[in-house]
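INTERNAL AUDIT FORM
Audit reference: QA-55
Scope: verify that the stored structure record matches its stored sequence.
Auditor: D.O.
Record contents follow.
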Amino acid sequence: MSATTAITSEVGGADTSHANNPLSRKLNKILETRLDNDKDVLEALKAMSSFFTENNLRTRRNLRGDIERRSLTINEEFSEAFRAVKVQLDSIDEDVSAMSTCCNDMTQRLKAARGQTSDLISKTTELQKESQRLEMRAKVADGFLAKYQLKPEELKILRGTRDGRLHEDFFKALLRVKQIHQDCKILLRTNQQTAGLEIMEAMALHLETTYERLYRWTQGESRAMTTDSVEVTSLLAKAMQALQDRPVLFQYSLDEYGTARRTAVVRGFIDALTRGGPGGTPRPIELHSHDPLRYTGDMLAWLHQTAASEKELLQSLVKLATNSGIVSFIYQRF
């Protein structure tokens, strides 16, 4: 019993010393390793198979040196490749540095330009605002001139030509002057009284000159109405309408018209008495002077017919007159 125990103890001690041997542990670890599951070992063996072609004593002894030389070669190749990469990276770094320097320079220039142009921008903004204000003032001034000033063509029409003829737009220009003169009263109620007075004086002068010229033209037209067959033109009727605003000139024009027509009627009456009508028809009224009744009747008939014609002519002359007092005065007088 004791002998068996001793043998067992000796065997156990031998196993324990074997297990504690480092070489034994490494061998056991290598033997226990499954190469199928260790990819790193498989890759290493595959790489080693590319240069370890013969398995003999010499190649096994030189394996470590071959591996180290191959590792050195690989490292040298990697170093060369990395050196080329480093050169390219250095070139890129130089380019980036140059770009950074350029960007910094541009930034400084932009700051300087911003500082220089800030005043210009502010001045430009002020000038634009001032331009807008001036443009608005120009529009107001143009509107004011269009409302309170005559156009050059209107002045030319009012002044007339050397031959004294009246333009068709004369009365439109005259109405324009009267409207401006009336509108000046609005300016007198504002803070533009000085401008209103000046414009009103100028328009008043234009009105006096225009009415004087209109009267002269009407006077000439009336003096020419001394023939038996006359016609009142539309311009003459408009002239009499316009002269209503100047009663004195209107009265003078009627006097000229009355004088001219009186001359025409007297001459026509004398011709009817002594000469008769055109071509001798009707016969002279004095041929019946021996018959007082017929003689008087023929004269009254001629006067009645002439009075009716003159009334129609006068109505044509003042048909555009709207002043009831003037119209009634005309009919009472004539």
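Auditor finding: record pair retrieved intact. The two ends are 187 Å apart (CA to CA).
Action required: none
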